[in-house]
Write a structure and sequence with these properties.
- It is built from three helices and twelve strands.
- By secondary structure, it is mainly β.
- The strands form three sheets. It has a seven-stranded antiparallel sheet.
- The two termini are 31 Å apart.
């Protein structure tokens, strides 16, 4: 076993990267729809239905979610690596053009973008915000959801995208 120097953020990122995660697109809307690729997402509770996402306090999405009071989490499928890369690119177009590469519909309850063709999606109302170091932990109550039971998953492991088929 190798010991890691926790003073190096690169080394710590590499350690975190050894945990395989799904890839999501977190969306919200203000004047225009906004999105960001994220893997800091988890279910919290079935009753009531709650999830959480973690967003850097320096990210534009942080303010948008707080102002909007709602967000969606779209779980990306194996064929959506380009979507994940696009919304992770800090140089991507902003404003109306940010969503040009995906088809989406407004969520039924909040109007936040829900990406068509996602493996699964959850539309949420923001219920709590907790401090989490350089991130905030956004707790959301699930208002609506859907899934594609036949899709393959897009994962992130060891710093690269991976694909996995259901057993």
């Amino acid at each position: 076993m190798t010991t890691v120097d926790h003073t190096s953020s690169r080394e710590l990122r590499d350690v975190f990267g050894m945990f395989a995660t799904g890839i999501t697109l977190v969306t919200a809307t203000g004047d225009t729809p906004r999105g960001m690729t994220a893997n800091a997402f988890t279910s919290v509770s079935i009753d009531p239905p709650l999830i959480l996402i973690c967003v850097s306090r320096s990210a534009t999405m942080h303010r948008v979610i707080q102002d909007c009071g709602a967000f969606a989490v779209c779980v990306l499928g194996a064929g959506q690596e380009q979507v994940a890369r696009h919304f992770a690119d800090r140089g991507r177009p902003r404003g109306e053009r940010e969503f040009d590469i995906v088809e989406w519909v407004p969520g039924r309850h909040t109007g936040v973008p829900v990406v068509i063709g996602s493996l699964a999606w959850l539309e949420c109302r923001l219920t709590e915000v907790y401090a989490g170091g350089d991130h905030s932990i956004f707790l959301g109550q699930v208002l609506d959801s859907g899934r594609d039971p036949d899709g393959d998953a897009l994962l992130f492991y060891g710093g690269v995208f991976q694909r996995i088929k259901p057993a």
